[in-house]
Amino acid sequence: MGGIDLVEPAEIPVINFQSLSSGTLQERKTALKQLDDAFQSVGLVHLSNHSIGQGLVEEAFAWSKRFFDLPDDVKKLISHPHDTSDHRGWVAAGTTVSSQGVWDKEDIERIHKTGPVEKREVLETGDPYPSRIQNPNFIANRILPEEIFPGFAAFTKRWWDACVKQELQLLQCLCEILDIPDKDFLGKQQNPDFNRSATGWNHYLSIPTQSLASGQSVRLNTHTDYGQLTLLFQDTTGGLEVEDKEGGIFRPVLPKPGTVIVQIADMLERQSNGRWKSSLHRVTTPHHLKSSDVDDSVLIERYSIGFFIQPDFDLVIKPLPGCEAKGRWSSLEWEDEITAGEWLTRRVALEYRPKDK
């Protein structure tokens, strides 16, 4: 593998959330501009001193490892049903094929049959509280019974509450950047009874580097995120890459312990009318191993946790007030009128390989 030219890591600013939440007027103004500038260029930032707290993040990773260490026969008790209208539960490695901008049915089937296998397993959980109303779009969680995996159900409530709190604080910041008078405008699109926000718990399996280099397998294919905003927590293994703002080059996003990556997703790119970028990204060989001369090396396991923020299922995704002017970015083709639920269902349908008959 020697002789590979390494690209420079992505330049992603670190923004201190305390400057946004409790800083002086000038500190807040500066931090908001940094947030806006980063979202307009690369589409993501590292957020330090976030309200979720590093202790809770470390606890979440500990729960994630404990879950994925369970035997597959146990995890199968809460398997994802391979239904694009229901994406809760455990997904075995080799099941997903993330893809981008492919809508033709024949092309989707071809990618599912011939695309490289994603060597990761996933647990997806959503709102841990029972639906407060009769809503056909609400999806109940699939979580192992307390007698099999004690304590996890209670933890998901603490985790959900902390992520939602951070999410709403960030959405207020975005409204302020856009000069929307009602700072809760975006937050009011976040009724938990009417959206599909979710946590994705990811475990990337150990894999020979040659398997990645040959294209036989991948850790995570190139894609954009589907919703409004993503909070991404990663361990120190590395491998995340984001497309350069000029396009065509993928640059490593080096782990920064103690921070969370905040990333613009498809719906917010559309709502900002292209002002903010939903960046293509992928997970591959970590930056520091790409120049290795050891051809038989094995990548260690990698863990990440994503909190994917979705607006209400029936919300029509269209430019927000003040975003009438077309911006620079248009990562995907949008119909004139499409709801958040329709968009999410369409994107999820691309991701899962059909069950063998």
Task: Give the strand tally.
Answer: 16
Unreliable residue runs: none
CATH architecture title: Sandwich
Question: The CATH topology is what?
Answer: Jelly Rolls
Rounded Rg? 20 Å
The helix tally amounts to 9
Family: Belongs to the iron/ascorbate-dependent oxidoreductase family.
Organism: Trichophyton interdigitale (strain MR816)
GO molecular function: metal ion binding; oxidoreductase activity
InterPro entries: DIOX_N, IPNS-like_FE2OG_OXY, IPNS-like_sf, Iron_ascorbate_oxido_reductase, Oxoglu/Fe-dep_dioxygenase_dom
How would you summarize this macromolecular structure in one to three sentences?
This protein is α+β, with helices and mostly antiparallel strands. It has one domain: B-lactam Antibiotic, Isopenicillin N Synthase, Chain (Jelly Rolls).
Describe the structure.
It contains nine helices and 16 strands. It is α+β, with helices and mostly antiparallel strands and 357 residues long. It has an eight-stranded mixed sheet. The protein has a four-stranded antiparallel sheet with strand order 9-14-11-12, with no helix packed on it. A hairpin with a 6-residue loop joins strand 11 and strand 12 (250-252). The radius of gyration is 20 Å and the shape is globular.
